[in-house]
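sorry to bug you again but im stuck and you know this stuff better than me. what follows is a protein written twice so to speak, once as letters and once as structure tokens for the fold. id like you to explain what the token line says about the fold, in plain words if possible. anything you notice is useful, everything is just below.
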Amino acid sequence: MFTRSAWALLSVMAVFGLFYNAVMPQFEAMTLTALGPRADLYGRLRVWGSIGFLLVAGTYGALLDHFGGDSFPWLALPLFMAMVLAAWLHRNDEPPRHEETAGDAGHLWKRPGVRRFLIVALLMQMGFGPFYVFYTLHLQAHGHSGAVIGALWALGVLIEIVMFWKAPKLIARHGASPLLMACLVATVLRWLLTAYFADSLVVMALAQATHALSFATFYACCMRLMADFFPGRRAGAGQSLFFGFSQGVGGVLGAAMAALAWESAGGGELAFALGAAVTGVAWLIYALRRRA
């Protein structure tokens, strides 16, 4: 609104990311603490974030068309004020109670299974890099209209909402680790389909349907495992590790990988094929956990 300088915008986004990513681990830790032994119900709380995303994505495009791009800060401000109000209501909440198991395993990084789990989360997020950065451009390059691409995005979010609601029953029935393995396999297939069959709307719709596993179920399983790895007062530090590895390091590496692939002769096909390869490595690392 006040400047269009790339460096100024980069600075603003860096400051925003610094503080916003510091909030998210605390929020997730509070959520898991409130759930207590029912961490498998995380998906039914997380679903409201997906609904919020769908509402904003479905309305703010029209608002920006009507009021213009310069109105974005003013349109976004009420949402941030609402978040501050929601957080203020919890300012006096009690911290997580200490559990005897919280301090027995030593440093968080040295806990059994933690390093493998965090590397898998990093690679999974890295595999999403092409999707977050170039999915729309990839589909446009293969002849799909803006309306069709928007519908595919909406399809993924709607399926995500349904799966977040169903995730507790699936985790209770099959366990978080086996489901995590299935999610990784489904994600490899998703990126391969997106890489090599982007011309087909039917195949793209099927690929988007796997968002139920590659995002919603995977994330719900991660939160269930996090509750086991980092109970009690260690939940906040554990969430910081998780977000730092996945959305922090994994997000940056995934975006860089996607950009390099996109600029090469391989384009979108290579970018999504690399996403599939990285996710395949994540599956292999997690599959070998029992032998480690």
